[in-house]
Amino acid sequence: MSENPFLAGNFGPVDDELTVDSLSVTGEIPKELAGHLLRIGPNPIDPDPKNHHWFLGSGMVHDVHIRDGKALSYRNRYVRDDHVVAAKGWPPVEGPVHEMDLGGGVANTNVISHAGKTFAIVEAGNLPVELDDQLDTVRRSDFDGTLTGGFSAHPHLDPQTGELHAAVYSPAWEHIRHLVVGADGRVQRSVDVPVPGRPMVHDCMFTQNYFILLDLPVILDVGVAEAGFSLPYKWTPDYGARIGLLPRNGEADEVTWHEVEPCFIFHPMNAYEDDRGHVVMDVVRHSKMFDHDMNGPSEGTSSLDRWVIDPTKSQASEHRIDDCSQEFPRFDERRAGQSYRFGYTANIGYDTSLGGIKKHDLEKGTGEVHNEGDERFFLEPVFVPASPDAAEDDGWIMAYVYDRSTNKSDITIFHAQDFSGAPQATIQLPQRVPFGFHGNWVPENH
Ligand SMILES: [Fe+2]
Questions:
Q1: What distance in angstroms lies between residue 24's CA and the mean position of ligand 1's atoms?
Q2: Which of 89, 217, 238, 269 has its CA 20 to 30 A from that of 404?
Q3: CATH no. for residue 20?
Q4: The pairing of beta strand 110-114 with beta strand 164-168
């Protein structure tokens, strides 16, 4: 067994790029589903077990194409970067290179569709990598010359405006950038908000009036880099922890800052403004991060918390929603930035082990678990509405699942309103899909 847990078991990379048609299905795939369930994570080539960090290494995308109640195909492909093409003897990747680019064009954290194109994306400096419908790498993209720095692994689409909002950071910057990419795929707003250090900023959220910045105490630390670790960010609680509310069309000097207890947030679930004009933000909260383990997020359990921010007060109020350790929060993204009731998360244990998934009724304060046994590990649950005008929560939960008993993966589909019920369909995949990070449903004709 590898000495690095993030190279062992289903954290480890897979070797082959496969294309397999006509997948075997148990149950019935809902006929209204027509599209691609995309998934991405690191699939490092020749990693050094001593300092391999789970967040690093070349990206690999996985896709299952569904239409007419059939699973038409599975394929997986490297997101080509300088290291992959050198190792495989493939031609170099075309496209711009920025000074901020880290690590030869790696993009391994999320895969999205925007303005009719598919992009593999990552934080901290590298450009998005455009993929074609076959998952083959097209080129690095700077959004038609409009993206002057790096991008983010977690842009969020405002369904009311078609804008993609992102928080961008770089190890070289003492600011966080609010970036808005228009529905035409071009950057239309870029505002730099100064911060006192160089924080890791994995995600963001917005409400009707604000873009929300997370300035939290995981900070660039030169000593960590000098000690030989590959991701030089360290838990620094003295830095403090605060949330910034930037008016969506405002300038940096209009940000108001609101303190929270020191913690780290990779992922908010959603945020909105209540009838008092207070910002309500639900987050998966880690009480610390990268304190003892410099190779992965292994600092204990997390919780689902609600922060309420009165824009006139310097302190946010914090409430625990659920003590159960969880991550990868998703929701019905038609409600992004608006009040909502339901969220979905993956259970994740102390040692970064996955398990079942959970649905949260945030109005009732209740939770419901979907668990298919100790051998089955759910990756991030994706919600797909049953139809464009279906009610919130009326739709399908789709998730890649790793089955330890077969050492392969499958896709489970079930109705969100029958959350603890049996799957509607299970699609068998020809190989395992490493745990990785994020994915999305991309409807046909997107
Ligand atoms: Fe993430």
A1: 30
A2: 269
A3: 2.120.10.30
A4: unpaired
